[in-house]
Amino acid sequence: MSGTVRAEVSETGLPARRAALAALRAVDEDQAWSNVAVPAAISTLPGARDRAFAAHLAYESLRWEGTLDAALTLVCSRPLSDVEPALRRVLRLGAVQLLVSEVPDRAAVATSVTLAREQVPRARSKGAGGFVNGVLRGLARRASDLPWPSIDEDPVEHLALTTGHPAWIVRELLGRFGAERVRSILLADDVAPGLTLRVTGDRGTVLEELRAAGLSAEPGAVAEAVRAPGVDPRELSVVADGRAVPQDEASMRVVHATGVAAGARVLDLCAGPGGKTTHLASLAGAEGQVTAIELHRHRAELVRGAAEAQGLAVEVLVGDATDAPLPADATYDVVLLDAPCTGLGTGRRRPEVRWRRRPEDVDELAALQRRLLTAAAHRVAPGGRLTYAVCTWTAAETDAVADTGDRVAERLGLLPGSRRQLWPDTDDTDGMFIATWDRPSTALAEAPGG
To answer: Could you tell me the pTM of the whole model?
Structure first.
């Protein structure tokens, strides 16, 4: 499995484990995203080691959920689905300590028993503790000899269990790549990314400031990017004062793919929460005009807030991007469609996405993406560019939708541009897909042979 951390925490380690369990409950019951739930749950822990350990347990429990459940099923006296959710979370938290983290068996089991007793009414606490004790002790005995199939016996099941991904995702990738490439992609998807910042001012100044504070900081591959692994952005003054914002390099590459330049008229469709919108606005400059469309009002407010925090002028409209609340003849130099998708490319930061999504989601979202892309293509001005982006890697949401875009583009007089799939193993970014189409300028379109 993935890398390990030592349990160098407070004397009992219970506060850190309680915080991890609270994060798992928020992800499970409230459908919160872990990149929000985990920082919130661990924020009250006073020690940095406790916070790091709690975050590790929470993220690894989510990342390896399927493998943990398969291992627990081997030693559980009843189907895991019949175990009440609160105790199932405790079992996963205990199992991740036994199978992933360098936590002594005794500490992992004893603390899990205590947590189990805290999760149920007092009348049942003794029984809950005994149940968790028995299951985890049984797992500890089998931890070094789990009966997973070999790659030759069952490549899908082998890769699913040894990389912590659902079988349907493994199967989809195996339809396109060999087993070793699939393993490379999925194992990279299991490595939590360090912090990446998009600098809004001078990158050199920010780098010097971070290094002067004793932090590890290096320039990223994108001009505005700074990588600062192991750093909490909430503790950085450059983030607090708006000189840098947390953003993955894949998102920055989407914005650069649009070709946005100073003075551009920009339309950002499906804009929430606003990271790409504000990047576009910063490059379009004071003479540019940026309009952001977002279907959900609360996400539109996030776009508006992000723009205000960075001192950027952005027109934010609430509406459906397939029928945007714009004048019928309004066209733009830059049209970005960052479409709703399965989000599998964000698995390094939000590992629970792999368990939330189902195969049927792919086709449903691809149908929506095709409708959105068709609507977006009508908004490209002469000399302008349409950019389609999704943070996923399924063939149906990437190349298949781009193929539809090619057909729409041909009908509307746009020319296919570039396509690129970013991968966590080769690009060390989110798994983003980017495709572009260009509308020739009027002069070029009317030129002989043009």
So the answer is: 0.93
